[in-house]
């Protein structure tokens, strides 16, 4: 695949010991089943309004739109995860019709609209038709006369998870309903539902409720759902993230409110590490969990497809290790060795282990510094989020909170030694707080990221590249003043960078094309790329300033150039004085070439190169000088002199 | 471009080098060779053909050098070229190792040996571009003829050779070493060598103590600056708007993660040897040693008619494609690029944000630096103005960056560095996340507690009280690293600055690999102290903050959670829904679930186990679950029920671990394995065993895992095969 200029990251032919646990962490698969209540109140369209921004969707339509968006996002971001849609309270009933499964009558008024699975193109299409075109050909969105039994709905979900998502690390049931009390005073029905809910809990299914509240009436959980919902085992404390009701109003449509609530649960909350001992000082350790709210999303890799059957089928690949004589190698024979001077240096497994084990799993503070002491260029890798947990030490949360508050108040960071797991490579991190202490300041600078502490990896001395160039500072002048105006007039919306406004065009395009091809639609030939600056706006807002600035720059540059030329002339005169007694031999290095008279080709200016190209004197440069020039331009220096010349000429024509 | 290097080591082998001096337990030769081997092995590790090494022995028993061999010159006795200049690999290293031993000879002139080395370099490098160096290691007991030092120095300078003299027990006032009982002979020789070095344009004179001590300071592999981008940085679109500005810039990497040395997968090839370093197969197998392992891929597809439901297909039968959900979309080779977003090389500013709206933890990776194109006045002044203006209004620029045509779009944050402190005016850039890179996770607030009923609490056991807050504040201030040390001028010294902290794994591995290459039989030493220096708070700081730490510990009132008490029977804390409703009593009220059903096996098994009051119930539950698992496997078409069976098995395993009844599980698993491998469960069920049971870690419960088990780790390993 051609996705990368990341060859430097890519590993050679050798198998690498990568950072395994980040991958382990991804293999924990997630299955989400939407259970959408199809009652007459859920189907009721909103009161008509002239306001363009008002609600147009019934609750069911909004829920289905959410599910549709969820499905598309899932294909991009979590291609191995499953989802399904179960409608309940429907006149029609449908479960799976495969043999061995229960017949439809087993779960009356439950309609399995999308089987729980990794979504296929057909699933997307079917849902798209229902959502976008309102094509309800099977008339599934017809409410039943009597409501569905919740115990039935829950057991139906249980069966779907049991069979389709066996051994999944995360299984979640999203219930979307506006009915706070589906069974009134029917105690029997309520207890049956509670028992089925406990079954789901024992099966490891988390129920997430997305209540839709009507006419500003609060959704009362105590009527029914408090018996159904369990605190997720991950939350050991009394704190609750709370169940947020979706509603329309406050300038928000029901749809956007629902989407924001559901989106916040899009990714299952998987911890990257847990029970991490966080040593604030000798004798003072608390426990934290780690998460990765930031992760670079890349397009899926290509796969191999077998076209010999009726349907295109993914070929599963298996790798076998073979030695130089193509003999299959058993796992027990495999050893790890290091290439060194053309040979392999071998350590026994015990030695290799002891070499890597510099410390056990720990996050240990070695002190604190002002945030400003971290150089602005000190960045190498994304950060990890940590949050306290009481699993190892009771009281961890309050100590963590005190530290978080102090760091925010004093604008300080912790400096810590960090080993993410046994045998992991140690790292130095800065511990940086997010969020704000001010209650009113609801929209903090990073509303899309959680509030807590971040482990910000610091580069090691080994990671710093020395750039052997000079860039002496120049004094600020009128150009600076004009530029200030430009900057202040071109602030991003809300004076912040909000990543959610900038989808990755490469990913979007990849999946857009793929979706069109999978669904047999026309392949689009254009797409809005939100990362492209709003050029028109720029011209409108600061066009005048820019034009002035350009003119000023041209003048200043001319002065500067002349100044330089004079200076150079003077220098050259000095040089000639010194150089006169030198033996003629010296000048033989590059006869007749102005370019060659400089000792290092890297110093040749573009103008000089251009002149050399025009005068056809480039080829008189020695290979060493050529290589210097090419290196300074970041161009490859491999090959024969002719290759080097060709590359340099191409570069000059393009750049100089 | 790798710079070419020619280095000749001149090492004194004289008989006095075999003695131990100044309280050392190793001989002078071993002491000096520590330095030399480290240097040579670093060169070997680099595996560069253009980094060449020669080796000259001083005071060897024999005489073997061109100058003496000619027979015309005097004063070149007992000097031997042990290795002519050339590339250095493990073969040469081993050969050289066998030659390094003290001799019975003495009195050869070190300066003559330098001349031998110089001649070797002159002959080898001719007039080509080389970095030339002679490194002389001696204890200075060998008499020096100091008459021609001037001429020799001149020749060294003329040939552009650097002379490094590292003397054993040489005095070095700067480093702070002085040998008290120095002989006059040694004193004179030291002075002569110092004089020679002083006459050289490029010379280093040092004592071995310092050289050896510095070996543990990690050396960083220099990497050439890489220019990632050379082109315009624009504001506005110059192709459409006349107002748009364009500054010609160059972008280099500022940080790039250095990877630790990576291990290769190898096998011991035929005719096993005992020694631990062998030839790479690519070079020469030599019939013994390790050889590299290659990966071979085979492809399989589902086929209902094939045995086991799958069959192999040839690679040639396959097309490339992408997955859209579980739908595969095949592409012809020519269509592959259609999903690739077309981009043009560009670097353009989207807008600006104030400093305080940015948080460093949203950085996605490595830093770049941006400078104006060289000798381009407009670019120099233009970029400078942008940098100063950003700095003055405390803003960053956000830009869209495409490194070259077809490369992926990146969003970069550009930070101004007006070079006020470091004299380096540039923009630094870091990558920012896209919408898809952000996962929304919800966490409860840290400064208040929201109860289930919706109340907001400001005082709670999960929140710090004022005492704890104050103690934390004092502690953080006391543990400040930025000014607890001061330099000579009283200016605060930043502790652990980025450029002084070395990656411990890289240098630990490199040191160990080099040590093993030089001496395959020695055990691995402990890691160098400097590598672990920053793994703990500095002791001085801890002593200073002792009081604050004590206060914080008192205010925190932490309690360690005891290891899980594994109660066997008796009611465990019942799990309850938000309402606190006791579901178990509801269950009790219902007709008792007599037998575990296959369709709801996991909840029913757990509930049965939870309610169990005797071993019999547990055995019953395990028996029922066991039958369900076997039936699932037996009924499974190919692997369709395997994961379900495996999940049931893992629940059984966990349950029995909890009840400390490992024997029950192990017994069941042994029987199950037999059935799986014998074909008793309707067909070939090996995949169930290897992939799902062994692969998912559902093997025997060992003694390590649970004390009461009688299965050892080794037995469990054997059993998993």
UniProtKB/TrEMBL annotation, chain A:
Entry's EC annotation: 3.6.4.12
Keyword Cell cycle on entry: no
Broad enzyme group: hydrolase
Enzyme active site: 26
Comp. bias intervals (Polar residues): 594-604
Domain of life of the organism encoding this protein: Eukaryota
Coiled-coil stretches noted in the UniProt entry, renumbered to this chain: 546-573
Gene Ontology BP annotations: DNA recombination; double-strand break repair via nonhomologous end joining; telomere maintenance
SMART domains tied to this protein: Ku78 (SM00559), SAP (SM00513)
InterPro entries linked to this entry: DNA_bd_Ku70/Ku80 (IPR006164), Ku70 (IPR006165), Ku70_bridge/pillars_dom_sf (IPR027388), KU70_core_dom (IPR047087), Ku_C (IPR005160), Ku_N (IPR005161), SAP_dom (IPR003034), SAP_dom_sf (IPR036361)
GO cellular component: chromosome, telomeric region; Ku70:Ku80 complex
Reactions it catalyzes: ATP + H2O = ADP + phosphate + H(+)
Keywords carried by this UniProt record: ATP-binding, Chromosome, Coiled coil, DNA damage, DNA recombination, DNA repair, DNA-binding, Helicase, Hydrolase, Nucleotide-binding, Nucleus, Telomere
Region feature Disordered, mapped onto this chain: 1-24, 574-604
Single annotated GO MF: hydrolase activity
Gene3D superfamilies cross-referenced by the UniProt entry: 1.10.1600.10, 2.40.290.10, Ku70, bridge and pillars, SAP domain, von Willebrand factor, type A domain
Domain SAP intervals: 618-652
Subcellular location: Chromosome, Telomere; Nucleus
Family, as annotated: Belongs to the ku70 family.
PANTHER family in the record: KU AUTOANTIGEN DNA HELICASE, X-RAY REPAIR CROSS-COMPLEMENTING PROTEIN 6
Its job: Single-stranded DNA-dependent ATP-dependent helicase. Involved in non-homologous end joining (NHEJ) DNA double strand break repair. DNA-binding is sequence-independent but has a high affinity to nicks in double-stranded DNA and to the ends of duplex DNA. Binds to naturally occurring chromosomal ends, and therefore provides chromosomal end protection. Required also for telomere recombination to repair telomeric ends in the absence of telomerase. KU70, of the KU70/KU80 heterodimer, binds to the stem loop of TLC1, the RNA component of telomerase. Involved in telomere maintenance.
Protein's name in the database: ATP-dependent DNA helicase II subunit 1
Source organism of this protein record: Triangularia setosa
From TrEMBL, chain B:
Name the UniProt record assigns to this protein: ATP-dependent DNA helicase II subunit 2
GO cellular component: chromosome, telomeric region; Ku70:Ku80 complex
Gene3D superfamilies registered for this protein in UniProt: 1.10.1600.10, 2.40.290.10, Ku, C-terminal domain, von Willebrand factor, type A domain
One of the GO biological process terms: DNA recombination
Lineage: superkingdom: Eukaryota
Pfam (any one): Ku_N
Record-linked InterPro entries: DNA_bd_Ku70/Ku80 (IPR006164), Ku80 (IPR024193), Ku_C_sf (IPR036494), Ku_N (IPR005161), Ku_PK_bind (IPR014893), SPOC-like_C_dom_sf (IPR016194), VWF_A (IPR002035), vWFA_dom_sf (IPR036465)
Organism: Triangularia setosa
Record's keyword terms, sorted: ATP-binding, Chromosome, DNA damage, DNA recombination, DNA repair, DNA-binding, Helicase, Hydrolase, Nucleotide-binding, Nucleus, Telomere
Top enzyme category: hydrolase
Function: Single-stranded DNA-dependent ATP-dependent helicase. Involved in non-homologous end joining (NHEJ) DNA double strand break repair. DNA-binding is sequence-independent but has a high affinity to nicks in double-stranded DNA and to the ends of duplex DNA. Binds to naturally occurring chromosomal ends, and therefore provides chromosomal end protection. Required also for telomere recombination to repair telomeric ends in the absence of telomerase. KU70, of the KU70/KU80 heterodimer, binds to the stem loop of TLC1, the RNA component of telomerase. Involved in telomere maintenance.
Residue ranges annotated for the VWFA domain, each copy included: 6-215
Principal place of residence: nucleus
Signal peptide: none
Family membership noted in the UniProt record: Belongs to the ku80 family.
Catalytic activity: ATP + H2O = ADP + phosphate + H(+)
Entry GO MF terms: ATP binding; damaged DNA binding; DNA helicase activity; double-stranded DNA binding; hydrolase activity; telomeric DNA binding
Entry EC no(s): 3.6.4.12
Subcellular location: Chromosome, Telomere; Nucleus
């Amino acid at each position: 695949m051609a996705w990368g200029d990341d060859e430097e990251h890519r590993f050679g032919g050798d198998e690498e010991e990568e950072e395994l646990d980040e991958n382990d962490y991804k293999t924990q698969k997630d299955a989400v089943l939407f259970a959408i209540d199809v009652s007459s109140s859920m189907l009721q369209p909103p009161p008509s309004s002239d306001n363009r921004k008002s609600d147009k969707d019934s609750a069911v339509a909004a829920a289905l739109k959410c599910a549709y968006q969820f499905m598309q996002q899932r294909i991009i971001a979590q291609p191995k995860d499953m989802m399904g849609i179960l409608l309940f309270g429907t006149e029609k009933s449908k479960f799976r019709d495969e043999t061995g499964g229960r017949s439809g009558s087993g779960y009356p008024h439950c309609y399995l609209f999308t089987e729980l699975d990794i979504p296929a193109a057909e699933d997307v299409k079917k849902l798209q038709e229902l959502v976008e075109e309102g094509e309800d050909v099977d008339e599934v969105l017809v409410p039943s006369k009597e409501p569905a039994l919740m115990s039935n709905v829950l057991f139906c979900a249980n069966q779907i998870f049991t069979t389709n998502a066996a051994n999944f690390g995360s299984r979640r049931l999203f219930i979307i309903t506006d009915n706070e009390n589906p069974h009134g005073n029917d105690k029997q029905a309520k207890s049956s539902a509670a028992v089925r809910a406990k079954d789901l809990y024992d099966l490891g299914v988390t129920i997430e409720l997305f209540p839709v509240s009507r006419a500003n009436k609060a959704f009362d959980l105590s009527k029914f759902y408090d018996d159904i919902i369990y605190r997720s085992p991950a939350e050991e404390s009394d704190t609750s993230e709370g169940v947020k009701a979706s509603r329309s109003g406050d300038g928000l449509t029901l749809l956007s409110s629902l989407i924001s609530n559901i989106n916040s649960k899009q990714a299952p909350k998987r911890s990257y590490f847990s029970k991490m001992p966080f040593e604030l000082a000798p004798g003072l350790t608390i426990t934290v969990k780690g998460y990765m709210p930031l992760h670079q999303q890349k397009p899926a890799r290509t796969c191999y497809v077998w076209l010999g059957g009726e349907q295109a089928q993914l070929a599963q690949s298996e790798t076998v290790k073979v030695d130089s004589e193509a003999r299959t190698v058993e796992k027990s024979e495999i050893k790890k060795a290091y290439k060194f001077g053309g040979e392999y240096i071998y350590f026994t497994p015990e030695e290799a282990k002891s070499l890597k084990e510099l410390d056990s799993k720990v996050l240990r503070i070695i002190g604190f510094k002002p945030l400003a002491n971290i150089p602005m260029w000190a960045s190498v890798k994304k950060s990890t989020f940590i949050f306290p947990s009481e699993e190892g030490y009771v009281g961890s949360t309050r100590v963590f909170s005190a530290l978080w508050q102090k760091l925010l108040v004093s604008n300080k960071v912790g400096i810590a030694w960090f080993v993410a797991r046994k045998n992991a490579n140690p790292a130095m991190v800065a511990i940086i707080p997010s969020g704000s202490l001010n209650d009113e300041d609801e929209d903090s600078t990073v509303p899309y990221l959680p509030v807590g502490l971040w482990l910000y990896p610091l580069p090691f001395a080994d990671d710093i590249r020395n750039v052997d160039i000079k860039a002496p500072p120049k004094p600020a002048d009128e150009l600076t003043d004009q530029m200030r105006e430009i900057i202040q007039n071109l602030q991003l919306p809300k004076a912040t960078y909000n990543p959610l406004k900038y989808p990755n065009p490469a990913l979007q395009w990849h999946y857009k094309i793929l979706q069109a091809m999978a669904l047999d639609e026309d392949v689009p030939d254009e797409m809005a790329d939100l990362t492209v600056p709003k050029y028109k706006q720029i011209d409108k807002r600061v066009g005048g300033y820019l034009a002035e600035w350009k003119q000023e720059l041209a003048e200043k540059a001319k002065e500067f150039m002349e100044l330089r030329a004079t200076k150079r002339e003077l220098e050259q005169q000095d040089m000639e004085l010194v150089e006169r007694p030198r033996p003629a031999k010296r000048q033989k290095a590059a006869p007749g070439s102005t370019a060659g008279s400089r000792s290092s080709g890297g110093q040749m200016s573009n103008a000089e190169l251009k002149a050399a190209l025009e005068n056809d004197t480039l080829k008189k440069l020695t290979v060493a000088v050529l290589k210097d020039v090419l290196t300074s331009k970041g161009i490859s220096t491999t090959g024969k002199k002719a290759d080097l010349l060709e590359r340099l000429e191409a570069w000059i024509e393009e750049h100089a | 471009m790798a710079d070419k290097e020619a280095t000749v080591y001149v090492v004194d082998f004289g008989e006095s080098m075999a003695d131990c001096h100044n309280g050392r337990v190793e001989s002078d030769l071993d002491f000096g060779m520590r330095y030399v081997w480290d240097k040579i092995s670093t060169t070997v590790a680099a595996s560069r053909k253009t980094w060449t090494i020669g080796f000259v022995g001083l005071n060897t028993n024999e005489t073997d050098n061109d100058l003496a061999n000619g027979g015309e010159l005097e004063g070149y006795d007992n000097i031997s070229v042990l290795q002519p200049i050339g590339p250095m690999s493990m073969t040469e290293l081993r050969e050289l190792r066998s030659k390094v031993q003290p001799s019975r000879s003495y009195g050869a002139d070190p300066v003559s040996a330098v001349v031998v080395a110089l001649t070797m370099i002159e002959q080898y490098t001719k007039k080509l571009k080389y970095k030339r160096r002679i490194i002389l290691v001696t204890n200075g007991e060998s008499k020096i003829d100091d008459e021609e030092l001037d001429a020799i120095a001149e020749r060294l300078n003329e040939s552009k050779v650097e002379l490094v003299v590292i003397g054993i027990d040489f005095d070095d006032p700067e480093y702070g070493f002085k040998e008290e009982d120095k002989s006059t002979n040694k004193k004179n020789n030291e002075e002569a060598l110092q004089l020679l070095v002083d006459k050289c344009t490029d010379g280093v004179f040092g004592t071995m103590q310092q050289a050896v001590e510095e070996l543990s300071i990690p050396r960083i592999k220099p990497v050439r600056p890489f220019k990632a981008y050379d082109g315009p940085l624009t504001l506005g679109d110059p192709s459409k708007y006349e107002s748009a500005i364009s500054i010609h810039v160059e972008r280099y990497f500022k940080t790039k993660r250095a990877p630790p040395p990576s291990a290769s997968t190898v096998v011991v090839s035929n005719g096993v040897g005992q020694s631990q370093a062998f030839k790479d197969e690519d070079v020469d197998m030599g019939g013994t040693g390790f050889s590299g392992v290659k990966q071979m891929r085979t492809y399989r597809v589902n086929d209902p008619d094939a045995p086991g439901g799958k069959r192999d297909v040839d690679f040639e039968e396959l097309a490339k494609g992408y997955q859209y959900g579980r739908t595969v979309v095949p592409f012809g080779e020519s269509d592959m690029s259609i999903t690739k977003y077309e981009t043009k090389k560009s670097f353009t500013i989207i807008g600006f944000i104030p400093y305080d709206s940015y948080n460093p933890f949203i950085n996605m990776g490595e830093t770049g630096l941006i400078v104006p194109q060289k000798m381009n006045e407009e670019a120099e002044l233009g970029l400078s103005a942008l940098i100063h203006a950003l700095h003055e209004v405390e803003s960053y620029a956000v830009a869209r960056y495409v490194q070259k045509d077809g490369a992926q779009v990146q969003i970069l944050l550009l930070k101004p560095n007006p070079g006020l402190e470091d004299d380096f005016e540039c923009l630094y850039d870091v990558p920012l996340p896209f919408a898809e890179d952000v996962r929304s996770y919800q966490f409860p607030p840290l400064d208040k507690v929201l109860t289930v009923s919706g109340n907001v609490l400001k005082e709670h056991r999960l929140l710090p009280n004022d005492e704890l807050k104050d103690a934390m504040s004092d502690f953080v201030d006391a543990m400040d690293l930025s000014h607890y040390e001061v330099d000579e001028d009283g200016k605060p010294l930043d502790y652990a600055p980025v450029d002084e902290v070395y990656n411990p794994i890289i240098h630990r591995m490199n040191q160990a690999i080099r040590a093993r290459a030089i001496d395959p039989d020695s055990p691995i030493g402990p890691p160098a102290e400097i590598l672990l220096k920053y793994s703990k708070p500095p002791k001085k700081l801890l002593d200073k903050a002792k009081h604050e730490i004590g206060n914080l510990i008192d205010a925190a009132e932490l309690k360690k959670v005891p290891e899980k008490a594994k109660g066997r029977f008796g009611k465990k804390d019942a799990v309850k829904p938000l309402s606190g409703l006791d579901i178990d009593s509801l269950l009790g009220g219902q007709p008792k679930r007599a037998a575990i059903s296959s369709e709801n096996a996991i909840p029913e098994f757990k509930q049965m186990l939870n309610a169990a009051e005797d071993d019999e119930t547990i055995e019953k539950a395990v028996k029922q679950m066991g039958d369900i698992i076997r039936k699932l496997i037996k009924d499974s078409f190919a692997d369709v029920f395997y994961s379900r069976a495996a999940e049931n098995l893992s629940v059984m395993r966990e349950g029995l671990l909890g009840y400390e009844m490992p024997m029950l599980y192990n017994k069941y698993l042994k029987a199950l394995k037999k059935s799986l491998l014998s074909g008793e469960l309707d067909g070939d069920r090996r995949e169930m065993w290897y992939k799902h049971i062994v692969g998912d870690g559902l093997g025997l419960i060992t003694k390590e895992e649970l004390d009461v088990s009688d299965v050892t780790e080794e037995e469990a390993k054997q059993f998993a095969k």
